[in-house]
Amino acid sequence: MFDLLIKNAWVLTMDESFTEYKNGYIAIKDGKIAEVGENKENLESREVIDANGNIVLPGFINTHTHAAMALLRGYGSDNPLKVWLEQYIWPVEGKFVSYEFVKDGTDIACYEMLRNGITCFVDMYFYENAVADSVKSAHMRAVLTTGILDFPTPGAKTPDEGIQKTIDFIKEYKNDEFIYPAIGPHAPYTCSPSTLQKSMQVAVDYDVAYHIHVSETLHEVEDIKNRYGDTPVKHLNNIGVLNDRVLAAHMVHPTDEEVELLAEKNVKIAHCPESNLKLASGIAPVPKMLEKGVIVSFGTDGTASNDDLDIIGELSTAAKLHKGYNLNPTVLPAKQVLAMATRDAAKAIRLDKKIGSIEVGKYADLIIIDINQPHLQPLFDPYIQIVYSSKGSDVDTVLINGKVVVENKEVLTVEKQRVLSIAKKWREKILS
Ligand SMILES: [Zn+2]
């Protein structure tokens, strides 16, 4: 007897050989995938979902965001980066960031991510205990890091305090099925070599991931060259913190030599194309990184610089952006792009044994995309249709750990009216 059975599904497993079941089923027991294959008779299950021919995929993994910044969506947009940060974002964060701010902001973000088929995300912010509480009540999965910086933050007065808070957080959640703690030194330009090295020691000691922003802007590249005599990736390598634990967000401006180094050290990338475009940071050399074998996944970044939390949007943007920029329509094909947002993203966060594809033994983190809509028909190739024609809003059903959290396009675990009133409350506070 299974707990839940999804039948009549077009299953795109996203496993290494892109196995598909055109009239497939997925049987779930104890939160995990117990069986997957072509429909068969006589399967007994407590609950049954008839997918009605719709597409079932592994849930999307958003490998870089600052969820609580949902409260700053659209605030001060279209200004130069320095003005935006110094006159809008940082003053508000300095004044308001607290447990309440982070919990409320993350609730809004979780609602939106669930609605768009994101089942797992990587966060870097402050008060990660608030993020964890929000993730738990939304019944999501997340890799959580406290941003560690050399100057005082809303979370810690010194980098050492930030590191200690991270260690405490890791100890609290080390064996959790939903919260995966990691360490988050903010960036090479905001963390001294010593802070970066101490953080790596924690990552090694506690066997967790190391999440950091790297080579986001040309300004950063110049700054690091002036301070340390080398470009950011080489600088990280020089001080001994470049290895397979590293999930580097952005990576817009690596040199060819640095791309080789990323491949050699098995560094993972969170590519954030929409944020990089909106903040005018540049265009990351994704085809080159992929060609060298670097694992590249997708991040939305925070909503203040995007301004949504929709991985399908990132896929579509990235697939077209790199074709246009490289004058080559064969780079980033739809199938590869979808793999980057699922199984490769799971590798990027070191959870590929647990999530990222529809395979027996993995957690049942699944989404059903409603393809019975005029804008998604006729359907010749499901990968192409999802990347180029669908939107997050076409996700009809979301399951996390075998539990239905979105049904008929309605989020069940985060209350919509409450999220709307939170947003209104904070808008008034920020404007006053
Ligand atoms: Zn970021």
TrEMBL record:
GO molecular function: 5'-methylthioadenosine deaminase activity; metal ion binding; S-adenosylhomocysteine deaminase activity
Domain annotation Amidohydrolase-related: ranges: 55-405
EC number in record: 3.5.4.28, 3.5.4.31
Record key words, sorted: Hydrolase, Metal-binding, Zinc
SUPFAM superfamilies: Composite domain of metallo-dependent hydrolases (SSF51338), Metallo-dependent hydrolases (SSF51556)
Cofactor remark from the record: Binds 1 zinc ion per subunit.
CDD domains the record matches: ATZ_TRZ_like
This protein's record includes keyword Metal-binding: yes
InterPro entries in the cross-refs: Amidohydro-rel, Deaminase_MtaD/DadD, Metal-dep_hydrolase_composite, Metal_Hydrolase, MTA/SAH_deaminase
Catalytic reaction(s) noted: S-adenosyl-L-homocysteine + H2O + H(+) = S-inosyl-L-homocysteine + NH4(+); S-methyl-5'-thioadenosine + H2O + H(+) = S-methyl-5'-thioinosine + NH4(+)
Domain of life: Bacteria
KW Zinc (keyword) present: yes
Residue ranges of the TM segments: none
Residues the entry annotates as binding substrate: E93, H186, E216, D301
Binding annotation for Zn(2+): H64, H66, H213, D301
Swiss-Prot/TrEMBL cofactor(s): Zn(2+)
Enzyme class: hydrolase
Pfam families associated with the record: Amidohydro_1
Family: Belongs to the metallo-dependent hydrolases superfamily. MTA/SAH deaminase family.
UniProt cross-references to HAMAP family, sorted A to Z: MTA_SAH_deamin (MF_01281)
Function of the protein: Catalyzes the deamination of 5-methylthioadenosine and S-adenosyl-L-homocysteine into 5-methylthioinosine and S-inosyl-L-homocysteine, respectively. Is also able to deaminate adenosine.
This protein's name: 5-methylthioadenosine/S-adenosylhomocysteine deaminase
Source organism (scientific name): Sulfurihydrogenibium yellowstonense SS-5
